[in-house]
Amino acid sequence: MRLVGWFEVHGRDLPWREEPRDPYRVLVSEIMLQQTQVDRVVPRYRRFLARFPDVIALASATVEAVLEEWSGLGYYRRARNLHAAARVIVDAGGRLPATAVELRRLPGVGEYTAAAVASLAFGEPVPVLDGNVLRVGARFLALDVPARSARGRRLVAGWVGELMKDAPPGRVNEALMELGATVCTFSTPACSRCPLAGECRGRTSGNPERWPERRRVREPERVTWTAAMVFDGSGRLLLRRIDGGPILRGLWLPPLARLDPGDDPVRLAACLLEGKVVVEEGVRAVPVRHAIAHRRIEVHPILFPSPAEAQPPDHCWVDPGAPGVPTSSLLGKLVDAAAAVCGPRFVAGID
Ligand code: SF4
Question: Are residues 175 and 246 in the same domain?
């Protein structure tokens, strides 16, 4: 088959494509690749597997350790679900389920991930309908309905199913995903390099870019926070674990509070510390910007020198350069903003 032949020659050499496929490794890579670019995933995937080489190692770890290893990758719910899934798998005997239907019962495993693991690791003929495959399918078939509609998905799935009659299902899925990522791209399909060009109705139409239909972009939600950054006499930073809320749960960051219009960030930050730790007057640093899913967050770091030695409950003192607890890349931005005001040894710099 031309498509799979093309993939054998032109597919990128990625660590999760090593043969024979290990179902646990396929699961880890697919979950990491949700919402994160391939080049960012590659080094983190290697590191994650060095620390948790198999499902038993992952299930035996604490969720804190898994979140720490996930630090900076974002979308931390993926890490919590992956850890929970490992425990379910180990409780059931230690083998990953081999069908997409069973895989979907695992925490955090949706239709796409289940199909990817079932086809790549176990050879089940189920199509992976991710954005790349839907785009290639919509163009190849010149769909007259939106690719993401129920009918569009059915038509693309039927086409992929036909391809799977002539080649291993995992290979077909992977080749289509690769084609969408590297050749039949969103803005500039490179039809002259495409193994499907001979039969592609989108190419024949002369305007393959018209597929898929453009979706309305969701407006980001804009929020503002204040961050109470307390440094003790040795430059340690006080962090608090975020226990609730829809984002950053389980991660350690300086105490944070949402600012409403008219709120004073310095006063609100000081309120977060009341009764917990003795601090001197707060100093403002330049606000930092951070994006989490559809939220665009502006964070006002307020720096507080503290003579305190004590550690309030639910807080911990860390070296800001090597915190050693699960955290977000937001912490690095806040620490950089603080360093810009006071230099690397923060407390000494705050007058
Ligand atoms: S021929 Fe062009 S439009 Fe058709 S699948 Fe290939 S790259 Fe996409």
Answer: no
